[in-house]
Amino acid sequence: SVNGTLFTSVNKTKFLTESAFIKLVFLSILIYPFTARWGISGTALATTIPVLVTTAYCFYRVKEIFRINKT
Length: 71
Prior knowledge:
Number of helices: 2
Mean pLDDT: 88
Oligomer: single chain
Number of strands: 0
Helix content: over 70%
């Protein structure tokens, strides 16, 4: 993944572990209730939400690492 390569290149692999853990937690919480309620569509949604959350987390970390300011 792009995030994996980027974080590895600046020796910040702990962010990869944190990102994977966040994804695991969200998926663990959402998968059963969403699937039970909405079937396969709920499963798709339950797997999409953690990806969006971890993507936002990675953007935040990249901004922090490279000191990118919104101006």
